[in-house]
Amino acid sequence: MAKRGSMIAVITLAILVIALFVFIAIPQIAKVYASGKAALKTASARDIALILDTIYAYPHDIELEYNFDLSDFKVSISNNKVKVYDKSYGSPGSDPTLAQYDFVSVNDAPNFPLDQPKKIIFKKVEGVLAITYIK
Q1: 69-117: per-residue pLDDT in tens?
Q2: Which of 25, 97, 112, 116 has the fewest Cβ atoms surrounding its Cβ within 10 A?
Q3: Buried/exposed 62-72: b ≥16 CB within 10 Å, e otherwise
Q4: Residue 117: other Cβ atoms inside 10 A
């Protein structure tokens, strides 16, 4: 009988811990999605990746400005991926709402970390891509 009572106590404690976690985590997750930041990250990651695909496919020199304020985020362009994550996280892997989108580079391995860009300037001259930004 004592074993059954202790087992019920352990199960009850486990359920309470899980319930507490859910009641704390759900409002925080909902707050991130309700603020629109998750949608902004996704849209901007997709936009930047499509811009890079277009620039690589375009046969001539080109300069293009992406005038969208991403100063709340960090943008990482490397390994044929665009990652947009919250500036409060140290790395893209630690942001639970990381936005990531792939692009195809041509004879290039771009590596551009952008820290809180307000405007991103893409430039391709003689087949060489350069990305600068205004903070």
Answers
A1: 888 889 999 888 999 988 777 777 777 788 899 998 888 888 898 889 9
A2: 25
A3: eeeebeeebee
A4: 22
Beta-carbon contacts of residue 57 (< 8 Å; ≥ 6 apart):
none
Contact of 116 with 135, CB cutoff 8 Å: yes
For the chain, what is the total number of helices (H) and then of strands (E)? 2, 7
Whether the model pTM is above 0.70: yes
What is the C-alpha separation between 128 and 115, in angstroms, rounded?
22
Residue 103 contacts residue 55 (beta carbons within 8 Å): no
Pairing of strands 81-86, 73-78: antiparallel
DSSP symbols for 84-134: EEETTSSSGGG-TT-EEEE---SS---EEEEES-SEEEEEEETTEEEEEEE
